[in-house]
Design a protein that fits this description.
Pfam families: RhoGAP. This is Rho-GAP domain-containing protein. InterPro entries: Abr/Bcr, Rho_GTPase_activation_prot, RhoGAP_dom. By secondary structure, the chain is mainly alpha-helical. About 55% of the residues lie in helices and about 5% in strands. The protein contains 17 helices and five strands. The strands form two sheets. It has a three-stranded mixed β-sheet with strand order 1-5-4, covered by helices on one side. A two-stranded antiparallel ribbon has the order 2-3. The radius of gyration is 23 Å and the shape is globular. The protein starts with a strand and ends with a helix. The N terminus and C terminus are likely disordered.
Length: about 325
């Protein structure tokens, strides 16, 4: 039996895992009376076909108004060729799933302001960011669809708890965990920051800067905005930028271009908190704001990853020049 918790939009990511379990004993079909060496034969594409049934079931449930309105988990089972998939599902509106909230437990890292975490750790970049990036570059940079393919939700939650409680065996967990779960944990960390990495305060300026048509004016504006970020935010952003560039260098293998990566990370790093996103706009629904700004958010990140290497020291040196010239 294969147990799967479905909690992400990418339902294809577990197909391969299902395929690994889809084997039957060929002796069941052998009519010869002579003893035979056990041979395992895999049904062709059983995993894909089985997961196709799961997807179909989920889509039908999604269209059911009673299921969508229910706040309870719905359990279901689908069988095929001796393989049983048990799955649980619960629908959450986009308004809730996009909402940034401050964690009540400030001793952890998820939902805690980045400056609080770096001050506690006495680091320039949060430990969770450094460790996830290191593990991805160690054994996941050649993985097809890295950062696009979802990890198993239960694995991501286990890593989240380990980082939040500062578990001593976190390094062992990382080395044993599926690489897509580690990539998913990094995305979740940025998604659950109470304020986006590029800050609520600067969000309108980023939207205006990326829309500038004059290249020189855009360059000055976008670099000035980086200099305006708090140091922990800037260091973390620059660290992630260089990492994404290294991942994109492996595009022929992992199929993840800069555009693919910025589509994944742009909204995660820029999407403003609920209170800030509604200011000065007639759009009040989070899903409408998402649709309205998502392309600009992607373009902001794409601008920086396509830019020549950006040095923290150089940015700060320029800040000093600006301040002495005023």
């Amino acid at each position: 039996m294969t147990e799967i918790l479905v909690s992400d939009v990418n339902l294809n990511s577990v197909c391969e895992r299902l395929e690994q379990h889809c084997c039957v004993d060929q002796n069941q079909h052998n009519l010869s009376s002579q003893p035979q060496t056990p041979v395992l034969k895999r049904h062709s594409n059983t995993g894909a076909k089985l997961w196709g049934r799961v997807r179909s079931k989920l889509l039908r449930q999604k269209l059911d108004p009673q299921t969508v309105q229910s706040k309870n988990w719905h359990m279901d089972v689908i069988e095929m060729n001796g393989i049983k998939v048990e799955f649980s599902m619960k629908f959450t509106s986009r308004d809730l799933s996009l909402k940034r909230t401050l964690s009540k437990k400030q001793s952890g890292v998820f939902g805690v302001k980045i400056n609080v975490v770096t001050k506690r750790e006495r680091s320039k970049v949060p430990y969770i960011v450094r460790q996830c990036i290191e593990e991805v570059e160690k054994r996941g940079i050649d993985e097809v669809g890295i950062y696009r393919i979802s990890g198993v939700a239960t694995d991501i939650q286990a890593l989240k708890l380990a980082f939040d409680t500062n578990t001593k065996d976190i390094l062992m967990m990382l080395s044993d965990m599926d690489i897509n779960a580690i990539a998913g944990t990094l995305k979740l960390y940025f998604r659950e920051l109470p304020e986006p990495l590029l800050t609520d305060r600067l969000y309108p300026a980023f939207m205006e800067g990326i829309a500038l048509s004059d290249p020189a004016a855009k360059e000055n504006c976008m670099m000035h905005l980086l200099r305006s970020l708090p140091d922990p935010n800037l260091m973390t952003f620059l660290t992630l930028l260089e990492h994404l560039k290294r991942v994109a260098e492996k595009e022929p293998v992992n199929k993840m271009s800069l555009h693919n990566l910025t589509t994944v990370f742009g909204p995660t790093l820029l999407r403003p908190s609920e209170s800030e996103s509604a200011k000065g706009q007639h759009i009040t629904c989070a899903s409408d704001i998402w649709s309205h700004d998502v392309m600009a958010q992607v373009q902001v990140l794409l601008y920086y990853v396509q830019h020549p290497p950006i040095s923290f020291a150089e940015l700060k040196r320029n800040t000093l020049y600006f301040s002495t010239d005023v």
